Amino acid sequence: MVDVLIFAPSPLLTVTLEGDLDGADLHIHPGGQGIWQAKMLRTLGRSVAVAGTFTGETGRVTRHLLADEGIEVAAVEREGRGAAYVHDRRSGERVVVADLAGDPLSRHELDELYATVLREALASRLVLLSGPAGEGILPDDVYRRLAADISAEGIPVVVDLCGARLDAALAGGVRLAKISHAELREDGAVAGDTTDELVAAGHRLRHAGARSVVITRSDEPALLVDGEESLLVHVPRMQEVDPSGAGDSFTAAVVAALAAGEPLREAIALGAAAGALNVTRHGLGTGDPEAIRRLREHVTLEVLDEDDAESLDLDQLAARAEVDER
């Protein structure tokens, strides 16, 4: 049994040019939302498997690279064009040279992938549903079906999605939904950035099917809507090198803690620490596990209350954690 199964419909092959304009190093890695999350889970000591489609030449290379990193793969292999990108970072900024979404799944391939995910989910402690590399890869309703079928077996489901995919997953029911403030704005769920507006959006997502909701806000405190309580998640601000992948590191660290049996609020604190440290690094989904754990001790959760807000450290959080959060 693995700690976490990640549904990653279309893993990427990533090619990145690093260095300066006079010379460069070429870095080739597996990537995509679910893969970057898997890397952080491995960093934090959790066993992880990835279920997805691996297409054509890029898919074959991606699968071998994942195995080299100690990530189990439940693969649906097919021919065609796989998802991939080429980025040039020699100027200090990410410049997209090529961005290939890959071919959509046929009905037969989708059936095979669905069966693969269910099979692997039944041998996992927790399932994380992540998005595909591009649009049109698979129907959104797959997320509703997976959330409903996996949750029905008593396996917690966490989602890191937005738009129609998130709506579909919520209709199936999930333990935790993570979304960013920017994604909420893109979806038209919020117009501004006030805490009251985000709290209201979080409660709407809860009523739509999420037991709890966490909303990340770039370099501002994240917001956790947990039951009827709302909390701000404060973490020391780090000097930023590359913000890419911070949200995936946040989600993965939360899932790592939940899979280890930690209460949700302590898991959120670990996620905030991992996301904060990720921006200090060039690699996506990477981090130093001991640094993440030490930074977690400096994360505080401020309970938002109309009469009297309070800040809780980790010892207080543990004392307040309810049995059903474990």
What's the arrangement of secondary structure elements?
Blueprint: E1 2-7, E2 12-20, E3 23-31, H1 33-43, E4 48-55, H2 56-68, E5 72-78, E6 84-88, E7 95-100, H3 107-121, E8 124-129, H4 141-152, E9 157-160, H5 163-172, E10 174-180, H6 181-186, H7 195-208, E11 210-217, E12 220-226, E13 229-234, H8 246-259, H9 264-278, H10 289-296, E14 300-304, E15 310-312, H11 314-320
Parallel strand pairs: 1-4, 1-8, 2-6, 4-5, 8-9, 9-10, 10-11
Antiparallel strand pairs: 2-3, 6-7, 11-12, 12-13, 13-14, 14-15
Task: Explain this structure.
This protein has 11 helices and 15 strands. Helices cover 38% and strands 29% of the residues. The protein has helices at 33-43, 56-68, 107-121, 141-152, 163-172, 181-186, 195-208, 246-259, 264-278, 289-296, 314-320; strands at 2-7, 12-20, 23-31, 48-55, 72-78, 84-88, 95-100, 124-129, 157-160, 174-180, 210-217, 220-226, 229-234, 300-304, 310-312. By secondary structure, the chain is an alpha/beta fold. It is globular. α4 runs parallel beside α5, α8 (246-259) runs antiparallel to α9 (264-278) and α9 crosses α10 (289-296). A hairpin with a 2-residue loop joins β2 (12-20) and β3. Strands 5-4-1-8-9-10-11-12-13-14-15 form an 11-stranded mixed sheet, with helices on both faces. A 4-stranded mixed sheet has the order 3-2-6-7. Mean pLDDT is 88; it is low at 306-310 and 321-326.
